[in-house]
Every structure is written in C-alpha cells, then in structure tokens.
C-alpha cells in the first residue's frame, strides 16, 4: 500500500479502518488474480458480462423504472407487502420531533444490522402478522424490529419502549436474545452466543463513550454524526469512520496492529511486502459499511446532507460473492474447498471477499454504461440493492436446493 511504509503500525492500523483502504487492498488482490498469481482463485472475466446481464434483469424485474434505493436495512422490514417500520412510524411516531425520530431510527438500524450475520439454514422466524416462517436476513430483520418495538432493549419498556439503553445491552444473554428470535433446539440460530456477546459489548461501548452516546443511549450517535458535519454535510466515508471509531471496541477476538483492533480485517500473507506493516492485511468492515448505508436515510431525513456514497465499497458478503462463483467469474483453484467448512480468516475466504469488492466496482461501471446511467442516478449502494445481492440469492437457489452460498462459512454471528 503506497506510503504506508513511512507509518507506524498504529497509524497503518487506523488507515486500514478507512473506505479507501478497503478498495485499495481489494484492487491489489484483483490485480494479483488477473496476473494469475493468486493462490486461491483464477478469473474468467469473459463471464462477467453474463453476470452483469443477470444483475440488470434482476434490477429491472424489481425496479422497472430503475429508481433503486440504497441497499439498506430498511428494505428488509417489508415482508408480504407489509412495511413493518412504516406502519410503526405512521401509528406511533407521527408527532415525534425530527431529531428524536432520527435517534430512534439510528438505534433500530444499528441493532438490526449488528444482529444480521448469517442465520444458518435451519432457523426461521414465525411472523406474527402473516403467520409465515421467514428465514435468513429478512427473518432476522422482522425479529429485530419486533424486539425493538416491544421495548426489549429499553430500560423502561412500558413508558419508553423505542430506545436502546447501554445498561440493558450490557446485561444481554444468549437466552434473552434467543427468546426474541424464537430460537431453540428445533429452530437453531447460528452464532446466537456471538450475537448476544456483540450486543453486550455494544452496551459497554455506549457507557464508555458518553460523548458519542450521550445519555447512555445508542440513539445519541445521531447527535454525534450531526455534530461532526460541516455546513450540514457529511461524506459517507466520514460516517463510516465515525461508525468504526465508535464500534471498534465491540468486535471479539480480532487481530490487532500497533495496539489497534482491526475489526473485520484479515491477514492475506501473499500480499505482504517488506517494511510495509499494512500491506498483508485486507479490510472489509462489511457490517459497518452496511450500517453506514442504512444510516444515510435517517440522517438525510433530519436534514444532514450525506454525499460521496461511492466513496464506500460494495459489501464483501456471501450473496454478492456467491454470484461471482456461481456465475463462473471466480474459479477456485482447489475445487475441494466448495465442500469444506471455512472460517473467515481462511485465505480462500479473504481472497473471495476482496475479489467481490473489486469486481462489484466493475459490475457497477458496466451496468451504468449499458443502462445510460451515472454514479449519481445508480450509486454503488443501489447496484447492490437492485442488484447483485438478489441476483446472488437467485442463482444460489438455481444451483443448490437450499439456496446456500457456494462456499460454506463457519459463522460466529459477527461477520457474515
């Protein structure tokens, strides 16, 4: 990474917690793959055009006018034609002042995104409105919005249910969280212990950072973002930086560099260069970036101008990445990896995620060219929504009966 050799390990670690470093390191992995030098994957870039065609078709099917929203958590609160959060806003929040509404929505987004790591193939949520069982990310979304509305994160659930208090999160257990998800031996949720620990760590971070979370309340982060704005504006990468700084302490057991916890950042030794302390690390910050995309709408509604959305990257998760393997663009050098359970720190997974980030930029550029759109009218976050995430899900269902991703990832509830 250019220029990092002059930095200390601590400075290099902080650089790895930026959107620019995510994109730069992903591009280094792609360049290595294009040169035929990546140990885990080869590329068939001729197949990329077919993937783009698939993504365009998926986007047109769901958004015929090509007016595509960002890939944010808000999209998952709609099930069977019922937008659960819109109903709550209309019935309970119509008279709430904009600043307080922003705090409430940021709380919901934060908690829901942090609870969204892969649910596994055997869990589903029983939807109390439709009576249906809803799996994976949508089921997690419905569970989280119901828990929030029911006051499960509030210190006073009767008088003030719509809030998240640090003290409540600090006491979170897998049993309490599992009850909210309706998980159990017959409905096992992957990574339940990890999710509960993550919320407990979030509670500790809220209490430890009173200037970031005033009033020991998660929603205070809205005020923190507004205070960081210049002339009422914030660039999306700045919002990500605020998220990473505030939530850095919550991630469990992750690597450190210069005493700084790296979060969703993983070693890839074949990238390492002499005297360059960050060159062998690949950052993703997937949940933090998705959270940033999800904060854009409530921040804009309160009057904050959030810009430079394409300063963020695509999300290194299994639907976007699965699309590239199932679509024939990424070919594992060892086909046996498709049958193994891999951990997030495995070089195969790190390389796969990095290639996903880099190739999502190419997909976005190709879609804009073919559709006659610009980065303003089709930002990367809309490409994901339109888009690559759903196309990845659909092609997975075509190729595997259970719709699982092509690579089997061991989830601890904090990455995928």
How would you briefly describe this protein structure?
By secondary structure, the protein is mainly alpha-helical.
Number of helices: 15
- Based on DSSP secondary structure assignment, what is the total number of beta strands? 14
What do the pLDDT scores average to?
94
| Cα distance spanning the termini | 26 Å
Query: How much of the sequence is in beta strands?
Result: 5-15%
Q: Write down the overall geometry.
A: globular
| Rounded radius of gyration (Å) | 21 Å
Strand order, largest beta sheet = 1-12
Category from helices, strands and their pairing: mainly alpha
> What is the helix content?
40-55%
Instruction: Please summarize the sheet with the most strands.
Output: 2 strands, antiparallel
The stretches of 5 or more residues where confidence is low (pLDDT under 50) are none
H/E element order: HHEHEEHHEEHHHHHEHEEEEHEHEEHHE
Question: What's the structural blueprint in terms of helices and strands?
Answer:
Blueprint: H1 9-15, H2 19-34, E1 41-43, H3 48-62, E2 78-79, E3 82-83, H4 84-92, H5 98-114, E4 124-126, E5 133-135, H6 136-149, H7 166-170, H8 174-181, H9 192-208, H10 220-228, E6 233-235, H11 236-247, E7 256-257, E8 260-261, E9 265-267, E10 281-283, H12 286-301, E11 305-307, H13 318-326, E12 330-332, E13 341-342, H14 347-371, H15 380-399, E14 408-409
Parallel strand pairs: 6-11, 13-14
Antiparallel strand pairs: 1-12, 2-3, 4-5, 7-8, 9-10
Helix pairs in contact: 2-14, 3-14, 3-15, 5-6, 5-10, 5-12, 8-9, 11-12, 13-14, 13-15, 14-15
